[in-house]
């Protein structure tokens, strides 16, 4: 990462403003963007320096829709519980849920993408690199990032749909090919078929449109924010926080000895 020269201050190119206008980069917010550019287009240009192609836009939108919701997962439960405790701060509930976008839930496309990068960079030796990775994880008895799911078996329908979309749009490239190599070796190491989950497919399809691994989790954060707002909206209509609290309390708290029948 480059550092500013001594005596100079770092500068941002993301936004500047005058008394009459606000600019996102070189774009006039009012004159160029409002009512003309989509949220995804502006996000991609602000983050990566250029607006997406039509194919890239469809991939990004598909990824964002895929990651938005997956039921009462830790992020949704955390959001609902914090909102029940702090209903005056919608953002507190959302922030609590977003803390769960990490290495165990939702955010596993980041380490998965790193593995696909390694396999892709190996070129003709990609299959051997995939085999090395799969055997290494197997020896350590660890799940390979992007593989396995407690519910979706033998295949994750979201992963199949995302990879099919990449083929349809012509963005299916070296990372998707690397995922196929890794999947074959993961199955071989396990002696059975292991599901490619949604984040594994997301790592591949985002990688093939040029998204670096270290920014991929940002798509999960962006998408799940919308999903958590939806959970809060439902919580406002039909509160569940007290129910969740009581359910856990009754399941995990043993009766006091004095309350036991003599």
Tell me what the structure shows.
GO terms for molecular function: citrate synthase activity. Belongs to the citrate synthase family. This is citrate synthase (unknown stereospecificity). InterPro entries: Citrate_synth-like_lrg_a-sub, Citrate_synth-like_sm_a-sub, Citrate_synthase, Citrate_synthase_sf. The chain has helices at 29-33, 39-48, 54-67, 74-85, 90-98, 109-121, 126-139, 157-169, 174-190, 198-207, 213-237, 241-252; strands spanning 15-17, 22-24, 27-28. It has 262 residues and is mainly α. It has a 3-stranded antiparallel β-sheet. α3 runs antiparallel to α8 and α8 packs parallel to α10 (198-207). 32% of the residues are buried. The mean pLDDT is 93.
Count of runs of 4 or more consecutive helical residues = 12
Beta strand count: 3
Gyration radius from CA atoms, angstroms: 22 Å
Q: Which bin fits the share of residues in helices?
A: 55-70%
Overall average pLDDT: 93
Global morphology: globular
Report the biggest beta sheet as strand number plus sense, adding barrel if it closes: 3 strands, antiparallel
The secondary-structure class comes to mainly alpha
The CATH architecture classification of the domain at 109-214 is Orthogonal Bundle
Strand order of the largest sheet: 1-2-3
- SSE run: EEEHHHHHHHHHHHH
In quaternary terms, these chains amount to single chain
Instruction: Report strand %.
Output: under 5%
Low-pLDDT runs: none
Instruction: Name the CATH superfamily assignment of the domain at 109-214.
Output: Cytochrome P450-Terp, domain 2
Pathway: Carbohydrate metabolism; tricarboxylic acid cycle; isocitrate from oxaloacetate: step 1/2
Keywords: Acyltransferase, Transferase
GO molecular function: citrate synthase activity
Organism: Cupriavidus necator (Alcaligenes eutrophus)
